[in-house]
Amino acid sequence: MITSPRLQIFAAISAIVVGVVGAALIASMFGAAAERILTVFFITLVGVVGIGIYSGNSGILSFGHVAFMGIGAYVSALLTLPAQLKVATLPKLPDWLATTEMGLLPATVIAMGVTALVALLVGAAIGRLEGSAATISTLGLLIIVHGVIIGWRDVTRGAQSFFGVPRETGIWAAVIGVILALVLARLYRDSRSGLRLRAGRENAIAATAVGVNIPRERLISFVLAGAVMALAGALLGHFLGAFSPKKFFFNDTFLLLAMLIVGGMTTITGAVTGAVVITLVTEFLRRLEGGFSIAGFDVPSVFGTTQIGIGLIILYAMFRKADGLAGLKEWEERVFPKRPPSGSAPALQEVHVSDSLTASNMTMQFGGLVAVNDVSLTLTPGEILGLIGPNGSGKTTLLNMLSGVLRPSKGAAIRGQNKLNGVPAHKIVEHGIARTFQNIRLFPDLSVHQNVLVAALSTHGGEDADSRARAALARLNVAQLAGESAGTLSYGDQRRVEIARALACRPSLLFLDEPAAGMNRLETDALMDTLRGLTRDLGIGILLVDHDLTLINQLCDRIIVLNEGRLIAEGTPDDIRQDPAVIEAYLGRGKPGKKTKPKNRDEPGPATELAG
Ligand SMILES: Nc1ncnc2c1ncn2[C@@H]1O[C@H](COP(=O)(O)OP(=O)(O)OP(=O)(O)O)[C@@H](O)[C@H]1O
Predict the structure, then answer these.
(1) How far apart are alpha carbons 122 and 143 in whole angstroms?
(2) 279, 469, 483, 552: which could form a disulfide with 452 (CB 3.0–4.6 Å)?
(3) Average pLDDT of 493-502?
(4) Is 26 exposed, middle or buried (0-12, 13-18, 19+ CB in 10 A)?
(5) Shortest CA distance to 420 belongs to which of 432, 410, 428?
(6) For position 290, what pLDDT does the model report?
(7) How far is 230 from 244, CA to CA, in rounded Å?
(8) Residues 106 and 23 placed together within one structural domain of the fold
(9) Structural domains of the chain, count
(10) Is the minimum distance from the CB of 439 to ligand 1 under 6 angstroms?
């Protein structure tokens, strides 16, 4: 399933086909030299797009994918090399390989398959690493593959040139290769898997909370990227006719990454822009490298002019266009933006689950600090349970334990018959639990619609995802913002989108961590109506953490109060208002450093707030 509007995909694919074929036709009018330059450019572009499939969507810079290009080149060349040459120059090859002699197409397909298999094994390990550890491990991959190619002399001729490869890559083979790579990358970006991975790139904790299995999505893109790099390698090997391991090492890694970073990692438009800009600048500077004359002055040759030029472009891009020259959106997303849905939105479905969530003796220890100490609670669909307490009393930590973000040091949470302890964080949502976060965790560079759609796609097998997403947006009154980037909205709207995203998971229990923070009174009142509607109309149970005691008092059926990690009171809003332990915790009567009374009589102190 492709998640973006059909018009955008149609425009993108049409532009790719017309652009690539048009460029090839124009180059063929200028003769063989122009065709060769364009062929190299197309092959390079396949490589840039290949790295982009992984790095752009996952946000993890990969130094390792050029190694897959090398594997593709060697595997395909071993399959197309004339048998006689193999017998003469690689006498230790196994018979079946020595006698195999196939055309470029089947050899490329096999090379892509073999490389994808290698990528699967490597990616399974790398996909679990985060941030710079993941990037550094891809560097390790590059070095290891380089070492293996050099060391495996009987098959690769070691560091020497691997010559005699049939030069079968002409301009039209490159045209087919680049169209295939660009279309594949574009479709993958907006596939379910691509969208999930991009959500994980934007905010891993939030993506996990809506059911995204980030390591799995990373692995899919790692393997796909590996196969595309193998395509680039096979095309390059059969264009050059001879290559050595050096061709698939640091120099090309640097060049391809420079193109991707300068153009913009997150889009195909960016990959193409970067490849065009760096190729043009490189071609220009290469001509100047041997020295030149200008207005009668002779400028001497400067070794490394090209590299210096590329370095300066990278610096320019980082200072002036940190997201790359093409920015964060595809060209077609700007020209044909997604319109807010027209017509009436579908309604959210009622909850038909009555299983309570029962947490017993939950405890969380951070080093010497016991942030939550032996807390038990139950939450049932259809009720609103308030969770209050002074700053640092352990509310968010408790929520994090119940939603799988933190593994409790002690205690157990059970939903119906199922124990939640040990359930991976991305599977908690399958137990009907969705949440929002104290510090808003949207996917800022995705649209509002995509923020919510990714949650719907990742839950209940993606069934009715589109209508769930639309219903959730309508329920929170943010449908008109569907096409906006989530990161550009006001705090109030961002909070509403976050709740809509949680609702798109079709939960029976909803955890809201300070949903009214950043909202004015009017917005808070509207939010109260919305939340009441969720329990009254749909039967959803809500666990509500907030410092706005008016909101808590007016909305909650029951309230539990934490202080210094311990549960100090539980009851109806009336009970809680009069509970001496709660008043003490809020007023800190007798405790140094805490307010014992309001600064003046007009200022609403904690006691007044408790009174609602
Ligand atoms: N990941 C963590 N590592 C170490 N300490 C933590 C961690 N998360 C929370 N704490 C500590 O645990 C205690 C409880 O924090 P928590 O955020 O749960 O409180 P809270 O009641 O939600 O506070 P607030 O109302 O200010 O959001 C605090 O002392 C906090 O510093």
Answers:
(1) 13
(2) 469
(3) 96
(4) exposed
(5) 428
(6) 77
(7) 16
(8) yes
(9) 3
(10) no
Asked if residue 67 lies in contact with residue 257, where contact means CB atoms within 8 angstroms, the answer is: no
Residue 567 in 3-state DSSP?
Answer: strand
Task: Please tell me the distance between residue 549's alpha carbon and the centre of ligand 1 in angstroms.
Answer: 20
Q: Is 370 in the pocket of ligand 1 (CB under 6 A)?
A: no
Report the nearest atom of ligand 1 relative to the CA of 393: 21
Q: Is the CB of 293 under 6 A from ligand 1?
A: no
Give the separation between CA 207 and CA 481, rounded to whole angstroms. 20
Ligand 1 centre distance from Cα of residue 463 (Å): 37
Clarify whether residues 191 and 230 are in a common domain.
yes
Ligand 1, atom 31: closest residue by C-alpha: 392
H or E element in which residue 243 lies: none
pLDDT band of 591, cuts 50, 70, 90: very low
Domain termination site, one of 204, 227, 244 = 244
Residue 265 maps to a domain: no
Q: What is the pLDDT of residues 336-385, one digit of tens each?
A: 988 777 777 888 888 888 899 999 999 999 999 999 999 999 999 999 99
Q: Is residue 323 part of a domain?
A: no
* Residue 527, domain member (yes or no): yes
Instruction: Work out which ligand 1 atom sits closest to the CA atom of 400.
Output: 18
- Reported as a pLDDT band with limits 50, 70 and 90, residue 83 is very high
Say if residue 185 is in the same domain as residue 91: yes
Q: Which atom of ligand 1 is nearest to the CA of 438?
A: 27
pLDDT tens, residue by residue, 220-250: 999 999 999 999 999 999 999 999 999 999 9
Same domain, 482 and 466: yes
pLDDT at position 588: 65
* Dist. CA 476 → ligand 1 center (Å): 29
CATH number, domain with residue 539: 3.40.50.300
Cα 14 from chain centroid (whole Å): 26
Domain that holds residue 167: 6-244
**Which atom of ligand 1 approaches the CA of 406 most closely?**
1
CB of 392 shorter than 6 A to ligand 1: yes
Is the model's pLDDT at 317 over the cut of 90? Answer: no
Query: Quick one: 494 and 512 in the same domain?
Result: no
Mutate to test the pocket of ligand 1, among 363, 364, 365, 366 (most ligand atoms within 8 A of CB): 366
Distance 440 CA to ligand 1 centre (A): 16
Identify the band that residue 479 occupies on the pLDDT scale cut at 50, 70 and 90: very high
Decide if the complex's ipTM is over 0.95.
yes
Beta carbon of 393 within 6 Å of any ligand 1 atom = yes
User: How does pLDDT run across 480-490, given as a tens digit for each residue?
Assistant: 999 999 999 99
- Per the domain annotation, does 530 fall within a domain? yes
Answer yes or no: do 467 and 527 share one domain: no
